[in-house]
Amino acid sequence: MTMEAIGTQAAFIGLTFLLAGFVKGVVGLGLPTVAVGLLGLVMPPAQAAALLVAPSMVTNVVQLFSGPRFGLLVLRLWPMLAAICAGTWLCAALVPAGMMTHATSALGVALVLYAVVGLAAVRLHVPPAAEAWLGPVVGLVTGAITAVTGVFVIPAVPYLQGLGLEKESLVQALGLSFTISTIALAVSLALGGSLLHTPVLGASLLALVPALGGMFIGQWLRHRISAERFRKLFFCGLLVLGGELALRGLS
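Below the sequence we write its predicted structure tokens.
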């Protein structure tokens, strides 16, 4: 590969993570979908996924601490968060890797259906009395799906949205859930021997710069839009994410 080609690819990667970070900053999710979808045009999916490690982890942590109610959310959500870890590790240890070939596609279809329901203004509601038992169930299922597909949005995202949190608290709760899911998955991969090589880790750290830049721009925009517009953008983001997952599972 010539120096010009290397420079062109580096610029493309930088712009990709800038856009992916912007989407995450606006709606609170979507960085992996945008990044892997675009990076797949110029590199193998495995290499694209490896570049995501640092941007995904750090932007999740930034999102986690950017809201106003970290302590209250931890106290409210810790049963679900603990169950996410348990579900991820149990499923990774017990389920054969090839057992759920179509899991990613099915997950994408479920996410599309949820987004369509949301855009139709059908609001899910989790009664406060149900949180004590429903939170751990949601966590276990989310962890199991994370272990199989590497995606940690279902059913955690619908559950959190059904709690009736206001805009900034919802985004912070998503960051909390995604951070715990990422850590649980990373521990599972480390125990299984799937560790990153140093050159890939270095490239992933470089990709963090445009990802954070895009995220901060997206957060600036999110603070200046109405709750209703945010709701529509949120479900549109889920719709795109679901569609991409469904197509990826079929390929």
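The longest helix spans residues 3-27.
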